[in-house]
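Take a record:
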Amino acid sequence: MTDLLSFLGAAFFLVFGVHRLTITRGSRADPAQRYVSGFALCMGPALLLNSPTVTGGLAADPVLDTAVMFVSHSLKLSGLAFLALVAYALKSPAAGRTALRRQARLAGAALAASLLLFLAAQPHTRGDELSVPDGHRWALAAFSALFAVYGAWCLLVLARELAGHAARTAPGLLRTGLRLMMLAAAFGAAWTAWALDDVLGDLRAGHQGVGEDMVSSLLGAITALLATGGATATLWGGPLGAPVRWLRAYRRYRALEPLWSALHRELPQIALDPSAAERRPGLRRAEFALYRRVIEIRDGHLALRPYFDADVDRWTAGAAEDGRPRQAVLEAATIAAALENKRAGRRHSAQGARTAGAAPQPPAAVAATVAAETAWLLEVTAAFTGSPAVADVRRRVRRAAAGPGGTAAAPDPRT
């Protein structure tokens, strides 16, 4: 399981890093994007080198195993330094060259100090553990602590800049991406701080594990996933977001089916494509099919106007609807009554038609977009199928259609 988490995190980092490096080449590329790709390309190999499979394979060569451990540690430290550079690139106004050079010198100092402490500790591998001789525990503990403190500082600087940008950004995919990156920084801080667990072991016993443990691998995989999601969030509305949009459109298409089917049975001419009217669309065509279904429902609504009943407003005036919007219930009841009248062949007089012509339409606040129309019609459909007031209107119209002493026609079980 630890191997799987390590490989998963490494794969996310490497794929993302290569992708960002490819699309940000050139002198005009955003520096923050280059630094992000540098972070990913450091952390991916570090996770691979720390995986139990790699550390287990190197156990037979203690010298090589120790060297690989330091390389992995240095890659992680370099990745964290790249994150600090990302924070400097995000500053408004942007940080100057002097600040960037200062940060680069600090990163270089941290790497140099790590190397000196590592050499002073005189470590050697024994199985899956790194051990130091007696009297050198302090150096190994300082080596681990330096990584935790410097890494936490880098992530704190980044989180502060991301929080400021998110607060200044309007709602949308960009702000979502910034918030995901903030979460990635938080999990990254926890991942980095987990190294402090090694400090206690270094001081107490003079050894620490060579590979990533379960907690560290899990935190690394989550950090990689959140960072990848945050950095690609602006693409979700495009190709990356297409499957989600298709699925959402398909579900809404299906949700409108009860209202559409009731209209289509009485008014088959509303189908813009009769050959596809009874077929469910594939996911790729769901958005277009939803657009067509909204138009067909609206066409059916208009075609029923001669059958609108002027009494519907009065019949539903006092109905308790368990939180359903009053306007949605009124429109659903108007459609239900008109369908019953059409089945009975009961057209209203010209005066009645003019009165019924004031039947409810979507509120003026509803924007003239497919999304807004769909949201409105979903409310109407829910009322059409589940509102007690709409069911009562159907019964009233059926009794009226039966006439005095007559027997109403058997209700359509599908409505």
